[in-house]
Design a protein that fits this description.
- The complex is a heterodimer.
- By secondary structure, chain A is of the alpha+beta class.
- Chain A has helices at about 5-15, 20-60, and strands spanning about 5, 75-80, 80-85, 90-105, 110-115, 120-125, 130-135, 145-155, 160-165.
- Chain A has a five-stranded mixed β-barrel with strand order 4-5-6-9-8.
- The longest helix of chain A is centred in the first third of the chain and has 42 residues, at about 20-60.
- The N and C termini of chain A lie far apart (about 65 Å).
- Chain B is mainly alpha-helical.
- Chain B folds into two domains: about 5-90, Orthogonal Bundle (Rna Polymerase Sigma Factor, Chain: A), CATH 1.10.1740; about 105-175, Arc Repressor Mutant, subunit A (Orthogonal Bundle), CATH 1.10.10.
- Chain B is built from ten helices and one strand.
- In chain B, helix 2 (about 20-40) packs across helix 4.
- Chain B is globular and about 55 Å long.
- In chain B, about 35% of the residues are buried.
- Classes of the chains: A alpha+beta, B mainly alpha.
- The interface of A and B includes residues 9, 13, 25 and 31 of A.
Chain lengths: ~170, ~180
Amino acid sequence: MSKSLENEYKKYIQMETPDLWDRIEKDLVKSKKRAVRRWTAFGSLAAAALLVVVVLPLISGGSKSAETSVEMCAVDQSAGTMREETAEGELLITIEVTITEMNVAEGGVNWYTGITREGEGYTFTIPEDCMIMDESGQSTFIQEGGCYSIDLQEEAGKYRAVSISEIKD
Amino acid sequence: MEEAQFVIAVEKMKMGDKEGLREIYQAYIGYIYSIVYQIIQNKENAEDITSDFFLRLWEKAGQYKSENGGHRGYLATIARNMSIDFLRKTGREQLVEEQEEKESEENEDTRQNVELEVIEGLSMQEALQKLEVREREIVHLKVMGELTFQEIADILSMPLGTVTWKYRNALDKLRRCGYHE
C-alpha cells in the first residue's frame, strides 16, 4: 500500500529530532548575563569618560579658589600611551601593546606582559570583571601576539587592567 | 509557521521575550536539526550546532528583514552556513565530500535496483538511504521547508535544472519504496 511521502517524512523527522529546548534556555540565560555585563562595562566607561571630559573641567574651572578642586593632567608621553592622574593620586594609563607573555602565575594571580610600539613593557593583572572587547564590541579573549588598547590603573606600584579593546591591523 | 507569525515571534525576541524563540523552536527544530545533521553526520555535533543556531537567532533577531524572501530559506541558509563553518574549523569539509562520493559509489547498485524494481514496505529511514546526499537535502527543503525550487537552488548553490531533476529522481525512488507525493 502506498503511503503519503509528506506525512511519513514529517513523522520520521519528528521521531529523529532531539529535544534541545532546556539546553537552549540555559544558554540563553548565560547569553543574557553576558550582555548585561557587557552593557554595564560600557555604561561604566561612558560615565567615567563623561566625568573626565565634561564634569571635572566645569568643577575645576568654576571654583578656582576651592582648595579641593580636582586637577587633572593628561600628558602624551608617546604616540600610543596616555597617562592621567586622578585627584586621589591614582595613575590611569592607556596603552597600546602587543601581548608577549600570558598567565604568568606569581603571588597567587596571573600576570600578563605587553610591549608598546616604543618598546616600553607593562606587566599587569586582568580581573575577572574586566571586559575584553573586539572591534565590533563583542566579548573576546586575550591572545599572545595580539594587539590591544588597555586602560590600566596603578595601585601601589602595580597595574590592573580596567578595560581592554582588541586592535586589528 | 506563516511569515506573519514568524515576524511576530521575531518582534517578541527583540523585546527580550523568549516565548518568541520558543515558538520558532517548536515550529522548526526538526527542520533545522535535519539540515545540520545531513551536513555534519554526527549527532552530538549536530545537537551543539542546532543549539547554537537558536542562540544566534536570538542574538541577531534585530537583523531579520521580512522583505528578503521567506523565513524558511533564511533559517536554512544560516543553519547550512553554521554547519559548513563547523566542518571548516574542524577540517572535515573534505571528509564530507569524500563520504558523498563513497556513498554514491556504494549505493550505485542498490539505486539501479530501485530504479528497476518496486521495493514496497521499506521504512522511511530505509527509503531515504536509497537517495544520494543531495537528493535527501532537496527532499528535506521541499517537504519540511516548503521552499520553491529556485529557493532551494539558491541555498544549495546549484543550477535550478539540477535541483528539479534530482528532486524528480528522488521522488521516483521513494515511489518505488512505497511513498507517493
